[in-house]
Design brief:
Radius of gyration: 19 Å
Mean pLDDT: 81
Oligomer: single chain
Strand order of the largest sheet: 2-1-3
Structural class: mainly alpha
Length: 202
């Protein structure tokens, strides 16, 4: 990631990237989220739990207010992909060496270059400012679970001996949806020639 190490070492006199507008738009939800047990979040405890789950629930509720749950989810997925593909970003997210200010400064540049903005970007920077960036992947996973539940979507991991054609994939989705009682099933297919016939579904 070009310029990443240099940016982390910039002067701390730079303006903080987490703008007041985000708080005015609803970030008050996150003020006590580390300790929160309010009823709105408690309703979703069966889907997500723990500190990361509370952050995910608060973000999902905020996104829902603006009718932006899908857009926020897509932005979070893009950020997770960046993490998965960048050792530098993984280090920024996980290492305690970086201060909250270093993390938020670096993220401001990274998110801007990636075209990630709005509620999702401000949430990520807020998480960094609260020293919770190490759990961002769990928060993103929790948000995805909440969005899936809201849309009646179930995810399944299928291992097959050979690739499935479109007709087979649709039949598989329909069958899994019927079994799970879901509106639809998002199937992730992995190929393993070692399997002798049939499918393995998780």
């Amino acid at each position: 990631m070009p310029g990443f190490p240099r940016f982390c070492g910039e002067s701390r006199d730079s303006a903080h990237p987490v703008r007041a507008g985000f708080y005015e738009a609803g970030a008050r939800r996150f003020r006590n989220v580390d300790r929160s047990r309010d009823s709105a979040l408690a309703k979703e405890e069966t889907i997500v739990s723990g500190m990361a789950g509370r952050y995910a629930s608060a973000l999902h509720a905020l996104a829902a207010e603006g009718g932006a749950t899908a857009a926020v989810g897509a932005a979070l997925s893009s950020f997770q992909k960046l993490i998965d593909e960048s050792p530098d970003l993984q280090r920024l997210v996980k290492s305690p060496v970086f201060s909250a200010e270093d993390q938020t400064k670096a993220l401001a540049v990274i998110l801007d270059k990636a075209g990630i903005s709005g509620v999702a970007a401000n949430f990520i920077k807020l998480v960094a400012s609260k020293r919770r960036l190490f759990a961002i992947s769990d928060m993103i996973a929790g948000y995805r679970k909440l969005e899936d539940a809201a849309n009646g979507v179930t995810r399944a991991e299928v291992t097959a001996a050979s690739p499935l054609n479109d007709q087979q994939m649709q039949a598989l989705r329909d069958q899994l949806a019927a079994v799970a009682g879901a509106k639809s099933v998002d199937v992730d297919v992995k190929i393993d020639p070692a399997i002798i016939g049939g499918l393995v579904v998780k």
